[in-house]
Design brief:
The structure is a homodimer.
Chain A: H1 8-13, H2 34-43, H3 46-51, H4 53-66, E1 72-73, H5 80-87, E2 89-92, E3 96-99, H6 106-110, H7 117-120, H8 122-135, E4 141-146, H9 148-157, H10 165-173, H11 175-198, E5 203-208, H12 216-233, E6 237-238, E7 241-242, E8 245-249, H13 256-260, E9 266-268, H14 275-282, E10 287-289, H15 301-315, E11 321-322, H16 335-349
Parallel strand pairs in A: 1-4, 4-5, 5-8, 8-9, 9-10, 10-11
Antiparallel strand pairs in A: 2-3, 6-7
Helix pairs in contact in A: 2-4, 4-8, 9-11, 10-11, 11-12, 14-15, 15-16
Chain lengths: 351, 351
């Protein structure tokens, strides 16, 4: 394997000193880039793009070619696992992901098979291998998965939801069925992320997009516990390096101590949490990733610089900070503002 | 004025001992009740119901007649103030509130008049007076308003939003314009709530439904500061009693200390916050209201009882707890489950 030329991201996750704060951006390969929209149109629908190894690789590299990001991320969707389980993922423009066959009964849950990545999701590991090769050591590659709870919300609701009526009914009324589902999903995610790691992912992130809709107790029991199971089931060392794990629960600012207790290496923060307070709460046990409000990118260069400086200042000096947005970048952003963001992080964090 | 027969709710807000924990429910007058749906159909659209004093009074009393709630709340909408300012509130079934004339320019903000409740919102104070009279001292009456930030989100976006693109652009790019708007709204809310208090409201709650979409710093500057201004501008004593103020920021679990510092009497908690930890954080400075996940009401009596007991236990013994849901009840709930909820709170909190 080629030597890694820029290891700031991995060093920060290992709480080692860096010359400047590494930065990447959730959904950095995405619709705000004209070159992405071109490839996306060429591929047809979103899942066809994910499943086309060459094109998935090309869009993953676009932001790396254009900006000075310190990490690349696999181009894929968080819902590949339920799709591989046979639920039939599809996308409706402006409405987000949907499933043709959402889970309706206990039998549906009983019948689910744990995913065998090599058999069922080869297109993902192929993309990991190719992106890794094409990166050629420029920056590390992040693999990812949805969290079991987050996958389950889509599988049971059949789509995005505001109140999550069906899965919450199951949670409060038939918790054993939900545990059975989450267990199958956790085992699938372990298999999936380990396959990504053995294909070349140098770090992994678990996206718990909907953990924040749970009560404190339900979060611990139905989301966190399964992320912890995954953390414990992952290959944490590969190619002579540690493979760090980042957990990101959107709306999880109240549960940082619990997240740090899982044994993960980094915690992703959404923008509602003050990163300085977060650091005081978790100490130097984990790295912290984040957390600028993505909406700041709708403003102008001077506002972006102000917000970047304010987050750097709040985090303070020392190790363990990876700069990111508090959630994915939205499609309406001017790429020049992304450049201003990345440059500001590097400039104002220079040691 | 008739003597108050049940003052548990006011005693809990004053951190005085009670024989059992008082309970009410956000949106307790609402579509889950068949008798509400009947009146709602009779009135026509939702705003016509709000503006019909007799019918608004009738639906406010329905949950009091049916269940043993310890407080009644004015039946109205949080968006009456922008409607009175001329933005033209209307409702589209299944899509929530919208405005015919959302704010688009600085001139739109300049042109807004501070609301004069007696002139512009007489239908609200009429409803307060009538509900208070018809309650006849059974339980206290809560008045309410939306928070300035929350009102501003609808006024600028024109409707509910997921990402709040327009108001956030203003927040980061033209913060002075947003402050001008929020200031006008805060003065309007002060006028509005004081008018409700002089018409008979015995406590008031400010609903900050969208404060939780802000970053820590932006929350303090653009939502909390204006709620604090309102707290300081309210008549806090009327009819020989204190008039307590409750602040409720949905998604505000990280900011409880800041909320307690405003000088309010109570803080509403959504269901994501552990109420025991919340109490340890704010001490006995304020009462805490909440915080069962509304989705628990979708389950069954034994699950409801379990969750009620768990919250009572987490809060612990002593003063200052008002039981409520962590957000409004949804229309799909069986009224029998509401009865189970109210009865469980009273039964398991008996001193």
């Amino acid at each position: 394997m080629t030597e890694l030329k820029n290891d700031r991201f991995l060093r920060a996750l290992a709480r080692q000193p860096v010359d400047r704060t590494p930065v990447w951006m959730m959904r950095q390969a995405g619709r705000y880039l004209p070159e992405y929209r071109k490839i996306r149109n060429q591929a047809g629908d979103f899942m066809s793009l994910c499943k086309n190894t060459d094109l998935a690789c090309e869009v993953a590299l676009q932001p790396i070619d254009r900006f000075n990001f310190d990490a690349a991320i696999l181009f894929s969707d968080i819902l590949t696992i339920p799709d591989a389980m046979g639920l039939g993922l599809y996308f409706v423009e402006g409405e987000g992901p949907k499933f043709h066959k959402p889970l309706r009964t206990e039998t549906d849950i009983n019948d689910l098979n744990i995913v065998d990545t090599k058999r069922d999701l080869k297109y993902v590991t192929d993309a990991v291998s190719l992106i890794r090769r094409e990166l050629n050591g420029r920056v590390p590659l992040i693999g990812f998965s949805g969290s079991p709870w987050t996958l389950a919300t889509y599988m049971i609701e059949g789509q995005s939801s505001r109140d999550f009526p069906n899965i919450k009914m199951m949670l409060y009324k038939q918790p054993e069925s939900l545990h059975q589902l989450l267990d199958k999903l956790a085992l699938s995610v372990i298999n999936y992320l380990n396959a990504q790691i053995s294909s070349g992912a140098q770090a992994v992130q678990i996206f718990d997009t909907w953990g924040g809709v749970l009560s404190h107790d339900a979060y611990a029991e139905f989301s966190l516990a399964y992320m912890e199971k995954i953390v414990n089931g992952l290959v944490r060392h590969s190619e002579g390096r540690d493979v760090p794990v980042i957990l990101f629960t959107k709306g999880g600012g109240q549960w940082l101590e619990l997240l740090a207790d899982t044994g993960c290496d980094g915690i992703g923060l959404d923008w509602t949490t003050d990163i300085g307070s977060a650091r005081r709460r978790v100490g130097d046990r984990v790295a912290l990733q984040g957390n600028m409000d993505p909406a700041v990118l709708r403003s102008d260069q001077s506002s972006i610089e102000y917000q970047v400086k304010s987050i750097l200042q709040s985090y303070g000096t020392g190790v363990g900070h990876i700069f990111n947005l508090g959630h994915g970048i939205t499609p309406d952003i001017d790429p020049n503002n992304v450049k201003a963001f990345v440059d500001a992080v590097h400039q104002y964090s220079q040691r």
